[in-house]
Description:
The protein is of the alpha+beta class. The protein is built from 11 helices and 4 strands. Strands 2-3-1-4 form a 4-stranded antiparallel β-sheet.
Amino acid sequence: MTTWIRKYAYGHVWCLSLMTLAGLILAVSINGIGVHQQFIAGGFAGLSLLLFYVTGFLNPGAWLVFLNIPVFLLGFFLVSKRFFLYSLYCLLATAFFLQIVRLELPVQDPLLAALSYGCLLGAGMGISLRSFGSTGGLDIIGVILYQKFNINIGQSSFIFNMALFSLGFMFLQTDLVLYSLISVFLTAVIADYFMSLFNQRKMVLIITAFPELMVSLVSSKLQRGSTYIYGQGAYSGKRKKIVLTVVNNFQLKRLEELIYANDPEAFVIIENTFNVLGRGFSKRMLF
């Protein structure tokens, strides 16, 4: 990836565009499915929906903004200004789309509705986090607790959502809450997928009789770097140079062809990696 493309990919215009898209997807999921099925969600979005169902006052977007006011005031002083401003923009974009998006997706079966709802919510949340921001609320609280008290973000989210769904069982039909739990689980899975969508790579270890040749081929044909790891054969006792490289999914097949075209006896280990940081790959995400 060239320098200017990388600069654009991590620039303000790109991040704000992603957050706008995330807000639209979240609004479609809530107004298009969630409200009509009386589902709730995790985090402050779920609390906003529950308050809307119980009180009939305001709407989910207004509740979302109202609940986030004290959280954002706290976050302004305790998290980075960039994360705060990006999250504020994403919250306002989501609230705006919740006000103007009025539709009902034609999904009648409750289980299919829960699956669709979870997929859309997960996509929106994953895209918002991919953009160096968040939808506010529980995300900001989780970051603060992690930075100040080393409390895992997943743990704080689990405790909040456990309390939220306990309230849901008190005020909503049991079946609706259970369907909502299915959607929340799927939301987490899809959000993780979107977070790693552009970062997942393949780490390849090549044990070959021609390590120098493999390094040269990886550099010239794939434009990727390599590293030597020095090992020793357990049976032969011979010292070996093991070639380590990282490629994307599209380059993997080409790498296999290069390896076995030049050393049919090579031993290759391929491992999935969730994230690769550094030159030629992704930047570290700072919140």
